[in-house]
Amino acid sequence: MSGDARISRVAVVGAGRVGTAVARTLVDAGYCVTLSGSGDPADLELLAAVVAPGAHVAWTADAVASADLVIVSIPLHRLPTLDPSLLHGKLVVDAMNYWPPVDGRLDEFEEAAGGSSVVVQRLLAGATVVKTFNHVGYHDLEVDRRPAGHPQRLGLAVAGDSPAAVASVAELIDRIGYDPVTLPSLTDGRSLQPGGVVFGARLTAAEITLAVTRSAHDAAA
Amino acid sequence: MELGIGAFGDANRDPATGTRTSEAQAIRNVVESIVVAEQAGLDWFGLGEHHTPEFPVSAAATVLAAAAARTSRIKLSSAVTVLSTDDPVRVYEQYSTVDAISNGRVEMIPGRGSSIESFPLFGYDLREYDQLFAEKLDLLLEVNRSPRVTWEGTTRPALHGEYVPPRAEHGPIPIWLGVGGNPGSVIRAAQLGLPMATGVLGGSAIRSSSNADLYRHAAEKFGNTPEQTLVMLGSPGFLMRDGKKARDAWWPHWHQFMKVVGEQRGFAPPTRDSYDRDTAPQGGLLIGSPEEIAERIILMHQHWGHVRQYLHIDMGGVPQKDLLHAIELFGTEVRPLVQRELGATPVDVLMGRRPAPLAASA
Amino acid sequence: MSNQSTPAVRREPRVTDPAPDGVHFGIGTFAFQPQEPDGSPTPGPQVIRDVIEEAVAAEQAGLDSFGIAEHYRPGMMDSAAPVILGAIAARTSTLRVGTAVTVLSTQDPVRVYNDFATLDAASGGRAQLIVGRGSAIESFPLFGFDLSDYEQLFEEKLDLLMRLLREQPVTWSGRFRPPLVDQVLEPQISPGGVPVWVGVGGSPQSVMRAARFGLPLMLGLIGGTLEHFKPLTDLYRRSLDALQQTQQPVGMHVHGYIADTDEEALERFWPVWSGTMNAEAPKRGWAPYRRERYEAEAIGGALFVGSPETVARRVASAMQTLGATRFDFVAAASRMPHTEKRDSIERFGREVVPRVRQLLAASDSNAGWPDVR
Questions:
Q1: Which residue has the higher pLDDT, A133 or C332?
Q2: Can you list the domains of chain A with their CATH numbers?
Q3: Angle at the Cα of B311 (from B309 to B315), degrees rounded to 5?
Q4: CB of B93 less than 8 A from some CB of C
Q5: Across the interface, do C189 and B24 touch by the CB < 8 Å criterion?
C-alpha cells in the first residue's frame, strides 16, 4: 500500500480521450507517465508521441508494476478485461463513469447504491481505489488548469475510504492545476458521477464543497 | 478551404417562445436550409441520423434526395450515418441513389454519431459496438469499391457475389470516417486510408488539434497519399451581424440543447461562464460576427490544417429564420474572408476526383 | 377503414384520398435501363434522373400518383425507392409518391416506417405504399433471408408495419426481427398516416390476407385475362364481409402503351413487351411469349395497348369488370427510352384518363368510391 508515499510514477491504463488528456496534464506537471492500452505497446507509440508527448508506453502489466499510482480510464464495460491481480496492493484512481448509452446496461452498476466506484473497488479487491477526474470533461481538463492561488482556480473532488490514499491523490491534483476537495468515503463519489451535483459542472473548490454538503443534506432530509 | 453546414433536423422547443415545430416541419426545414446554403455559396451540407422527438430525421438519405432535386452544386452528405445499426448494403444503395439524383454530389460520413437510441431499436447490443462498426465499415468500403461483393462476417448475412445497384456514376463515393476524438479512432482512419471528419464541441478550438497531427503521422506511417489524408471539422456555431448579439441570442438555445443532452447523460447544464469561455476568440463554439468566425476558422486552420469547416446550427430550437440568416452570413461573408486567406481549392480536387458538374440538370 | 374496435388507436391509416369522382389514376415504374438508339444502355444514374422527370410529367399531366418498384439487379435502378421518391416529392406538389411494390418480406418494417414517415413529412403528407411479397427473389440472399420463410416473413412484417402505422408506442416480438419494447418511432406522421395497399399477383391466399388485415387490394396484372382476376376480387369482397371488415377499394396495376393508332401502338410495343416477357420466362418458368398471345391480351386481355380512345374504353371496362377504383399504368413496360416513356405517361394523363372518367361517370355500374361492389 503506497498511499502515503509521494507519487512520481503514474500508469494511465486506457489511451482514449480521457486517458490521453490526463496523461498530458501529468507530463506537464512533471510526472513520469506510462500509457498502456489493451494490446501491444508498439501500437501506442505513435499515438503517445503525437498526442501525449513525453509519456512512455508499455504493456499494462509492466506499466502498473512500476507505478506509484494507476489511473484507470477505460470504458467501464471493459473493466472485466483488466486482470485485478495486476493491481493488487496498488493505489488506483477510478476515472471511469457508468454510462449505459455507451456501456450497455450493466446490472451490478445499475444496482450500485453506493456509486460506481464502490463496485470498482469490489472488483479490484486488492487495490485501494480513489475516485477523481471522472466529473470533468476531457476537453475541459487542460483548458481549465490554473496556478495555485488564482482566483478562478477550479476544484477537482477526490473521494476515497483511505485518508492516506486520498491525501496522495489530492497532492497530485493540486500539482496539475486544481484545488482538491477531499471527500472521506468512496460512496461520496455518488455526487461526482452522472446525475450527481458535481458531474459536468465547472465549479470552484468552495462550490464543490457547498454542492456536496447540500446534496448530502437533501438526501438526509 | 470549403465551408458547409451540418444539421440534425432540430425539433426542440424554442426556449424563447415555448413552441415546438412539428417533426414533419423540421424535416422540411432541413430541405429549405440546404437550398439556402447553396444560394449562399456554401460548398457542403451534412445531415445526421437520429430517432428521437428532438431530432426526428431517421431516414437522412430521403431528405438529402429531396434537397438534391432542388439544388445543383452543393455537396450532400450524411453527418453521420449510424453504420453500426444499419445494413451497409442498404446504406450504399440509398446514397448511390442520391448520388445519381444529385449528379455525383454525395459523400458519406459513417461513424458512431450521438445516436445510441438506434441500438435497441434495431436489436443491437451496445457492448458489441466496436466489432459492429469495424465489420460494417469494412463491408461498406467493399460495396463502395466493387459492384459484386463476396464478404463474410458475424454481424450480417454473408454475400456471395450479389450485385448491389445502382453503382455510383463517378467511381466510389467519398467516405470520410467520423471520429469523435478518441486517438485510437484517429489512427484507425489513417489505417483504413480514409479522410477524417471530426468535431470540436466546445472547450478550446485548437487544443485537441494534436489529433490532426496524430492522423497525419499515422497516415505517413501507413504510406497513405496526400489525397487520402484530409481532415474536415464540424463545430457548433451561429452568426449574426453583431457578434455580441449572436452570442446572447444563441445562448438560450445552446443551454436548452445541452440541458436536454445533460438530462439524458447526467451532467449539469453549461453555465454562462463556460459558454463565454467557449465563445471567446480561441473557444470551440463558433458564435459571433462573420469577421470573428472567419478569424477563428483561419486560426483553427493553422492548427488543424483542415480542408473543410462546417457549422452546426440547428440545436435547441433556433428559429428557422435566424438559422437561415446565419447560413447566409456564413456563405456570403465568412466564406470569402476565409478563402481570401486560405484559398478556394475544392475538396474534390484535393481528393483527386473530378469536381462535380456545375449546374446539373436537377 | 377497419371497423375493428381497437382501443387506444392513435392513427388509422387513411386510404388514398380519392379525386372528387372517387377514382384514382397513377403511374408505376420499374426504373429499367432502356437501350439508347445506338444500342447501349442508358447509364443507370441517368435512368434515376429520368424517372424523376417522368414523375414531374405525370403530375403535370394531371395524374394522381407515381409508384416505384424495388429490385436488386443489373439493369434496374429501383433499389432505394424512398430516396428517389424524396427527390420527386421536392419537384411536385400534388402527386402522391409511393411504391409498387415494396418487398416487405426482406425489409425491416421499422426502417420502412422511418423511410415513409420521412417521405410523408418531406412531401407534406403525400406518401403511400403498396407492400407485397415480391415476385423477384434476389433480395432474399442479398439480405440473408430464407425463401422457405416466404409466407411467414410477409405475414409477420405486415403485422408489424401496420402496428407501427396505427398505434405507438409499440411492444412487439416475432421471429424475424428483434423485439420492440414501448417503442416510439420518428418522425411522427401526419394524422391518418401513410396509406398501405397490399399488392397481390394472383394468389388467393394473398387476397385473403389483404382482407384479413382490412387493407385495400392492388392487383398486379402482367398481361393475362381479366376473367382470371374477377374471382379474386369476388373472393376479396366476400372475405372482407365474412371477417366483418369494412369494404376496401380495389386497384389494378397494369402494363400498356399508347400511340396515335391501335396499329402503331401494337407494332411499337410488340418488341418491347415480348422482350420483357421472354427475359422473365426462364426465371419464372413461363412458356415463350408469342404474337398470338400478345394480340389476344392487347385487344381483349389485361394489356392496354392502342390509341387513346381504345385504351380509355378498355380501361373503363376493366375497372367496371373488377370494380376497381384505382388504376396504375406502367407505361411502355418501363423499358422504352425516356422520351417515349414520358410521352406515353403524358398521353395517358392528358388523353386517356379524362376520357375514362367520362365513361365511368356515364355508366350506372360505377357506384363511386369507396363503396364499390
A1: A133
A2: 9-220 (3.40.50.720)
A3: 155
A4: yes
A5: yes
Mean of the pLDDT values across residues B227-240?
97
φ/ψ (deg, to 5) at A146: -140, 150
Task: Give residue-wise pLDDT tens across range C27-67.
Answer: 999 999 998 888 899 999 999 999 999 999 999 999 999 99
Average pLDDT, chain C: 89
Position B109: which residue type?
I
Q: Which residues of B touch C125 (CB under 8 A)?
A: 24
> Which of B8, B97, B119 to mutate against chain C (most C CBs within 10 Å)?
B97
E strands within B57-156? Answer: 75-78, 81-82, 106-107, 110-111, 148-151
Per-domain boundaries in chain B: 2-350
Give C247 to chain B, closest Cα distance, Å.
31
Q: Which CATH architecture has domain B2-350?
A: Alpha-Beta Barrel (3.20)
Answer with the residue of higher pLDDT: A17 or A130: A130
**DSSP bridge partners of C76:** C32
Is residue C191 predicted with pLDDT exceeding 90? no
Show which subunits contact B, needing at least 3 CB pairs below 8 angstroms.
A, C
Boundaries of domain holding C110: 24-362
Q: Distances in Å between the alpha carbon of C364 and those of C25, C283, C323, C327, C358?
A: 20, 43, 12, 19, 12
Task: Show residues of chain C in contact with B122, CB under 8 Å.
Answer: 108, 110, 178
Give the pLDDT confidence score for residue C11 in this predicted structure: 39
Beta strands in chain A (DSSP E): 9-13, 32-36, 56-57, 69-72, 91-94, 128-131, 155-160, 179-183
Q: How far is C14 from chain B (nearest CA, A)?
A: 17
In whole angstroms, what is the distance from residue B43 CA to residue B45 CA?
7
Digit-coded pLDDT (tens) for C4-23? 333 333 333 444 454 556 89
- Check CB contact under 8 Å for A200 and B266: yes
Would the CB atoms of B27 and C80 count as touching at under 8 Å? no
pLDDT band, very low/low/confident/very high, at A43 (cuts 50, 70, 90):
confident
User: Which residues face A92 on adjacent strands?
Assistant: A70, A129
- In this prediction, residue B357 carries a pLDDT of 54
- Note whether A101 contacts B116, CB cutoff 8 Å: yes
The answer to whether the Cβ–Cβ distance between A194 and B266 falls below 8 Å is yes
Residue of C50, C52, C92, C118 to mutate, interface with B, max B Cβ within 10 Å: C118
Q: How many structural domains does chain C have? A: 1
Cβ contact C182:C127 at 8 Å? no
Number of Cβ pairs < 8 A linking chain A and chain B: 85
Is C16 within the bounds of a domain?
no
3-state secondary structure of C226: coil
Q: Is the pLDDT of residue B185 over 50?
A: yes
Residue C247 falls within a domain, yes or no? Answer: yes
- Subunits with at least 3 CB pairs below 8 A relative to chain C? B
* Interface pTM, i.e. ipTM: 0.94
C194-225 pLDDT, tens digit per residue, is 999 999 998 899 999 999 999 999 999 988 88
CA distance to partner chain C, nearest, from residue B83 (Å): 14
Residue C123 lies in a domain: yes
> Is residue C304 classed as helix, strand or coil in its secondary structure?
strand
- Phi, psi of A92, rounded to the nearest 5 degrees: -125, 130
Q: C-alpha cell of B81?
A: 450515418
Global confidence as pTM: 0.92
Question: According to the per-residue pLDDT averaged within each range, which of B151-160, C15-24, C356-365 is highest?
Answer: B151-160
